[in-house]
Write a structure and sequence with these properties.
This protein has helices at 4-11, 33-68, 103-107, 153-162, 174-177, 186-201, 217-221, 231-244, 257-266, 277-302, 324-347, 366-371, 438-447, 475-491, 546-565; strands at 17-22, 25-28, 96-100, 167-171, 205-209, 250-255, 307-313, 317-319, 349-354, 358-363, 378-383, 385-393, 405-409, 412-419, 425-427, 432-433, 451-457, 462-465, 472-473, 496-502, 505-506, 529-533, 539-544. The chain is of the alpha/beta class and 566 residues long. β1 and β2 (25-28) form a beta hairpin.
Length: 566
């Protein structure tokens, strides 16, 4: 039978906005007037044909339901998180293990709250750190949450070594090293060079991200990734960083393209495209085009001496009740956050099509896609849980979650928001605690045909459980979730070459020590190590959380094992 929903969706798409990759060049393919007329004429007939077919489909579905009604369906109930076996991370992880960090989240780089005062460059986040934009910050001083790592790396590196790290994922903050167009701050570059040297001296390999949600304010003012004209500015900068730090062998071009664009679309990050679907699609396409241009240039210059990848968060949205509204919302959010990016690296074809809003495309010929190894040496796998959406009747139940709207009258009511099923828990970070989904998501990553780096994984210890009134600290669930990842990670040992937990730094100044988690602010608790600091925000000591203690034991076993082999 014809998929009517798909046909109706196709009929509502605007005229396509297409860019082709042609032997390393990006070529637009604008439609002329006749092509636009043809596109919309075909869409009108497709839409009318689909509408006329709806009654026929309805009758078919009724008879199909009646014919199968008496057949007992035997379905295995979905696996719950607590049903997953616990395992030992030390038995399944690769030799390269560590934490992932962010210059903005750890040190406030690029903002007015920057703890590394000698790195004075401003990012698009400068001016955005206000209670209006960052949750849970009313009456709080942003300065108290950041530490100076670059200008005081010794205690931080010693802490990483004590925790057993053999690798550390860190961005080179573009805003810090290039405070103005055409101007590089040699002092800040030397701070990074010293930091990387100290990491290597401690037996910790730096893995560098070139764009982790942050870029210079001057780049934002030029249009950032909203316009393709700025792609060359980004690629030139990245190639310069690869040349400036020759000892760094592993680079990730972008962090979570889908999540970054979704946060911009929703207005939760500093942006000019809030609510504009077409602009969001073009932004995503421009970032992917920038990645491809950089990958090709870097491989041409450095051959196989540098590993070039990109990190992607496997964030998928699932309906709680299963009604049409929930399914539509989840379909659109999953397309933006996950499938549009994933399918590009699977097929070489980028499609961002939203009925009535956007029809953005980027096409790489199969021969060029294969010749460039799919534009990846490695895929960075990032996962926290499953995002679940509720929009409908709640039978009087109060659904947990951040900003969930519950309206109840005895045994009736409606709920709207990101939440979870009965008996589950949702993180303050956003997703539900859902380790049972990591197997399928890791398989998708492996199916891309490249080595896998688990570049971020973790579990928020700040949870809102079904039936409870508010979020509370639950460190044991955090610990057990990390242990439940282990048996699944073991199934993919041959594919996983590096492993990073998000994140090390947790500020003791917070009510329940955590980190500045982007727009989520101070409400989350993903950080594994409480770091103490003096009045100049220089590190003075540290203390492991229960989750951090678990990671420390596993990492030190791995580190000692690697040292014995060496």
């Amino acid at each position: 039978m014809i998929d009517l929903a798909h046909e109706i969706e196709r009929s509502l798409l605007p005229a396509p906005d297409v860019v082709h990759w042609s032997k390393g060049k990006l070529e637009g393919a604008p439609l002329n007037l006749a092509q636009k007329i043809y596109h919309y004429t075909v869409n009108v007939f497709r839409f009318l044909g689909s509408i006329l077919a709806i009654p026929v489909m309805a009758v078919y579905l009724v008879f199909k339901r009646l014919a199968t009604r008496s057949v007992a369906e035997v379905k295995e109930p979905p696996l719950k998180a607590e049903q997953m076996p616990l395992g030992n991370l030390a038995d399944v992880l690769p030799d390269k293990v560590g934490f992932a960090g962010s210059g903005l989240q750890d040190s406030g780089l690029g903002t007015e709250a920057n703890a590394t005062v000698r790195a004075a460059g401003k990012s698009q986040w400068h001016g955005f750190l206000t209670p209006e934009h960052i949750e849970g910050m009313e009456g709080r001083d942003f300065n108290e949450f950041f530490i100076d790592i670059l200008d005081n790396p010794e205690p931080f590196v010693a802490m990483l070594k004590d925790s057993g790290c053999t690798a550390y994922r860190v961005p080179i903050e573009w805003a810090a090293v290039q405070p103005a167009e055409g101007v590089y701050d040699e002092l800040v570059l030397q701070l990074y060079e010293n930091f990387f040297d100290q990491l290597r001296e401690a037996g910790i390999e730096p893995y560098v991200t070139l764009h982790h949600f942050v870029h210079p304010q001057w780049f934002e003012e030029k249009g950032a990734f909203y316009t393709p004209d700025n792609i060359q500015l980004y690629t030139d900068h990245c190639l310069r960083m690869m040349e400036r730090f020759p000892a760094v062998k592993n680079f990730y071009t972008f962090n979570e393209v889908g999540a970054f664009v979704l946060e911009n679309l929703m207005g939760d990050f500093p942006t000019k495209i809030k609510g504009d679907m077409a602009a969001a699609g073009r932004m995503m396409r421009n970032i992917l085009m920038a990645h491809c241009k950089l990958y090709e240039a870097a491989k041409d210059k450095y051959k196989d001496t540098k590993t070039i990848g990109l990190t992607h968060q496997w964030i998928k949205f699932a309906p709680v009740g299963g009604n049409a509204v929930e399914k539509l919302v989840c379909y659109l959010l999953s397309k933006i956050a996950h499938s549009a990016v994933y399918n590009f690296f699977k097929t070489g074809q980028f499609v961002f099509d939203i009925p009535g809003k956007a029809n953005i495309r980027f096409s790489v010929p199969e021969a060029d896609f294969k010749a460039n190894n799919g534009f990846l040496d490695v895929i960075g796998f990032q996962r926290y849980g499953l995002a679940q959406i509720k929009a409908g009747w709640n039978d009087g139940n109060v659904y947990p979650g951040n900003k969930v709207m519950n309206y109840c009258w005895k045994n009736m009511g409606v709920s709207f928001g990101a939440t979870c099923h009965e008996g589950e828990s949702i993180m303050s970070f956003g997703p539900t605690v859902h380790p049972q989904g990591v197997r399928g998501d890791l398989q998708e990553a492996v199916d891309l045909g490249h080595d896998v780096h688990v570049t971020e994984i973790g579990c928020d210890a700040k949870l809102h459980k079904w039936g409870e009134k508010a979020f509370r600290l639950d460190e044991q669930t955090q610990v057990k979730t990390m242990q439940r990842y282990a048996p699944v990670l073991g199934e993919f040992q041959e594919n996983i070459k590096a492993f990073f937990v998000w994140t090390a730094y947790a500020s003791p100044e917070m009510d329940e020590p955590g980190q500045m988690e982007w727009n989520r602010g101070a409400g989350t608790r993903l950080g594994m190590i409480k770091i103490f600091k003096d009045d100049q925000r220089r590190m003075t000591g540290y203390e492991y959380t229960p989750g951090g203690a678990l990671i420390k034991v596993a990492y030190n076993i791995i580190r000692h094992r690697a040292e014995e082999v060496a």
